Write the C-alpha cells for this entry.
Amino acid sequence: MSGNPFLSGIVEGFYGKQWSWADRRGCAEFLACHGLDSYLYCPKGDPFLRKQWTQNWPDAELGELKILADTCAGHGLNFGVGLSPYALYENYSAPARRQLKRRLGQIDEIGGVLLAILFDDMPGELTGLAQRQAQIVNDVMHWTTAGRVLVCPTYYSLDTRLEQFFGARPQNYWEQLGQLLPEQVDILWTGNEVCSESIRCADIESIAELLRRRPLLWDNYPVNDGEEGSNFLHLRPLSLRDAGLSSCCSGHLCNPMNQAWLSRAGLLGLARLYAAHSGGISDIFGTELAAQLQADTVRFQDRGLRSFDAGELLQLKRSYAQFQHPAAREVLAWLEGEYRFDPACLTG
C-alpha cells in the first residue's frame, strides 16, 4: 500500500458553467481557512484539458493558472491539474507519445505538486484497456516533475451506469490496473455509485484489494451538473461518510457545484470530517443570508427549480435580491435559469 500523505479538498471536475478565476482563488482561501489541503483543477469546460488536450493554453489562461497555483502554494495547499487525454489509449503511437510529453511540459510550468491523468467519460470497451492506460501512466511518471500522480480509471465506480454509457468493462480491468500501475500512483474512486449517497470503509475494502492500494475518493457531492443535477442546489454539509475514511483511503476530494460560493456550504462537511471544523454556514454567508438559505434548503435541495410555480419563483427572487452577497447572486442566477444544463458541453 502507498505511503502517500492523505489529501483533503476539492476536485474541480464538473461540466457546465465554469467558475471565474476569482472564484477559484477564493475557494483556495476557503479550503486553507477550513483546514483542507488540496485543489485539483480539471473542469470539464476547459477544452485544453480534454478534446483539445494536445493544444497549449493561450497565454492569458496559462497566466491565470500560474496565479492560481501560486495562490494555492501561498495558502499551503497541494495544487494540481487533471489532464484528460481523450481516447489517447486507442492509438498510443510514437507521435502521440511526443504530443503527451510536450503537453506535460507546459503543465509542469504551472508548478503544481499534483498531476492527474483522467480516463473517465471515455469509451472503455477495448481489448487490453488496462495495459494501454498503464503504459501511458508509466510514461507520465518518467516525464512529469509533479511529486504525486493520480489516475481516474474509465470505470471509477461499481455503478453499472458506466457500462451503459462507455461499454462493457473489460474482464479483470481493476485487477490488471492495480497490478500494472506503480504502487505510488493514486487511483480515483467515486464509491459504489457515481454520486454515492453514503461512503463507508466497508464499501472501500473490496476495491482496495483489487487495486492493490487505498483509493483516493473523488466524491461527487455537492456537484450539481448534468440535466437532472442542475435542477438542485446542494446546501447541506457533506454527510453519511465514515469518520474513519482516512484509514482506508489515500485522500478525499469533493467535486463542487457550478455555484462556487454556495458550494462552501456542502464543503463544510468535509472540513468537519478531517479538520474538526465546527463553524456553520453563518460564518460563510452572514447570519441573515444563512438563515434564508437554511429556510429554503428543502426547496432547493429536495424539490428543485422545476417544482416552483411562477408565484413561488417571484417570491424567491425578491427574497434573494435583498442581499448584496455573491452567494445570493448565484441563487438569483440559478432561479433565472442561467445554470440550466446544456448537453452541448458534453461534446467539448
User: Anything to note?
Assistant: The mean pLDDT is 95. Residues 125 and 170 are 6 Å apart (CA to CA).
